[in-house]
Amino acid sequence: MPAELSPIDKAKFAAARCAVDFVEDGMKVGLGTGSTAAWMVRCLAERVREEGLRITGVPTSTRTGTLARQLGLTVTTLDEAKWLDLTIDGADEFDGELNLIKGGGAALLQEKIVATASDRMIVIADAAKEVAQLGAFPLPVEVVRFGWQTTQRLIEEVLVSMDVLGRQTALRQSGEAPLITDEGHFIIDLHLNRIENPRALWLALNQIPGVVENGLFVDICDQVVIGGTDGRVEIRDIAEGTVREQRVDFIEESNIFLDID
Ligand SMILES: O=C[C@H](O)[C@H](O)[C@H](O)COP(=O)(O)O
């Protein structure tokens, strides 16, 4: 392993490397977005190269699609694949019930569609992503551009009516301009501090005209794989109620570490 790989990248790699072992020959796999998911795409590509695994990937963003193609993975659209065996993705936060906040990288809409169209969703994360209660990470809400300020006001009204603690909302920027998602929408980030009832908030936000989707994933994730900087990995399964530990080797000669930007 190159010396420049940071401890956090080691943890992300460990989680990703362990999770791709759940992928079997012939599977259709949802490919998440973000820095942890990028490790998963690299690990999957390595398994395809070395073991001749035949898998079809459905990317959840333009950038994941580009990376997957560059690494030689076969990718298709969700409409072509129709239904997936498994989706592996990162998260910004997860709680004890495996509710998630996602969308720090603005890919929440495609991520939620793809994860929902999968038999199973596995989240890969470093330990810092685990929280007792969701909400310290700003909750992203994807909104259509038309009338976005009205939508923002309606979101704030919902937060007041639900007695949510923090109520600051902000249009996400990309440099000087508003960030535009892959689907051509804006993102409004909600700075809430703490979310008492993720399910109620998820449903209430999605009732607002102009809201396309929000980054709360409730009852979608089945398993979380938590990577440690020393290669130790914990696998928690919510349905089975099990916790397992495993160890991942950092293989110095692996090609996987050579194409990191
Ligand atoms: O929109 C982005 C996604 O939801 C990511 O999976 C999430 O932000 C976690 O990203 P990272 O693995 O880079 O922390």
From TrEMBL:
InterPro entries, A to Z: NagB/RpiA_transferase-like (IPR037171), Ribose5P_isomerase_typA_subgr (IPR020672), Ribose5P_isomerase_type_A (IPR004788)
GO MF annotations in UniProt: ribose-5-phosphate isomerase activity
Superkingdom of the source species: Bacteria
Keyword list, A-Z: Isomerase
Binding site for substrate: T33, G34, S35, T36, D89, G90, A91, D92, K102, G103, G104, G105, K129
Catalytic activity: aldehydo-D-ribose 5-phosphate = D-ribulose 5-phosphate
Active-site residue numbers: E111
Pathway: Carbohydrate degradation; pentose phosphate pathway; D-ribose 5-phosphate from D-ribulose 5-phosphate (non-oxidative stage): step 1/1
Any single biological process term in GO: D-ribose metabolic process
Cellular component terms per the entry's GO annotation: cytosol
EC number of the protein: 5.3.1.6
Quaternary structure (record): Homodimer.
Protein's job: Catalyzes the reversible conversion of ribose-5-phosphate to ribulose 5-phosphate.
Entry similarity comment: Belongs to the ribose 5-phosphate isomerase family.
HAMAP family the record matches: Rib_5P_isom_A
Name the UniProt record assigns to this protein: Ribose-5-phosphate isomerase A
Record organism: Paenirhodobacter enshiensis
